Structure formats: C-alpha cells, structure tokens
Model the fold of this input.
Amino acid sequence: MKRECGECTACCTTMIVPELNKPAHVSCTHAKGGCEIYDGRPPTCAGWDCLWIKGHFRDRDRPDKTKYVSWVMPAPQVRQWGHPVVAIRELKEGSTVVPQGQKAIKKLTNASVSVIVIKKESGRTIYPAKGFKKKMKDSFGAQNVPFTERSGAFYISQAECEKMWPLDYAQGDDLRKLIKIGN
Done:
C-alpha cells in the first residue's frame, strides 16, 4: 500500500535539504498545508523514503500526527551491523517515548530492525533489534563512541552527536560549509 502525503509536511521540517540550504528541525519555506513546489521539488525531497507513505504504519500514524518521521537508513551507515536499521527523527522532543511511539519501536525491534531515534535537543537513542545488542555495543566500543545504556537502549548525548553528525545540527553558514551541491 502506498499513500499520499496530503497535508502532512512533517518531513519538510525534519529533513536536511541541501538544495534549499535547509537544516534539520526547521520548517521549509515551501511547506504550507502541503508542498508548494511538489512537482519541481529537489532530488533530496523526491527521493525521500517515508515509511508511513510506503504503508508500514497505520493510517492514523501519519507523521504529522505522531510527531516523528521514520525512514530506512542508507546501507553504508548500517553495513557493519548486518541488519536493517530505521531512523526516526522527532518533530517534537519526546514524541517517541509516549506509548504510541514505544509501540512502533518495539514492533520494529521485534522484527529484527534496530531503531535510531534522532532527537532535536537531547541526542540519540538506539534501540537494538532483538538479538543484536551485543553486536551494536561492540561496534560502538570499536569506534570509541561514548554511550550510556538504559533500559536496553543505547543513549548518545547531544554534545557527542553534534561532533559525530555535524550536518544534523548545523545551520546557516555552518550548514553551507558542510553541504556542497554540484561541485
């Protein structure tokens, strides 16, 4: 089942769109009750891989209602873990810790899919897929990724995330320096 975005513009806030010099967690100037430039949208937007659009969640779990957007992480970023990983970027801090968000995360991890929750203001939480916790923990250790472990999940602080993934937190001139389009 494939759906239409309709009035949902959640990805227009959460995504980084290099072609528009748009940072994460900032509303796109073209998102006004839908995308004003949908037919001519940039390749980053056209190639977006929203799991809700692809039919992976219930109709009522549309991203603008749940306050988080989910997609499958690109292969190079997860190759070392050897299993699928879904990223969830919160539109609203804490939207994945409410029962609805936790239910979605548990469903994915029980299906052997790890989940990385990218929070706007408090780092990342990684929920390992069933049977992959040790492999992920060893991977973090091998890469010297500082983390804490809580309730079966791994937490990476905001400060560490900003060092490891600067593009996710850059804005303005810093974003322009990190993003190079066409050259």
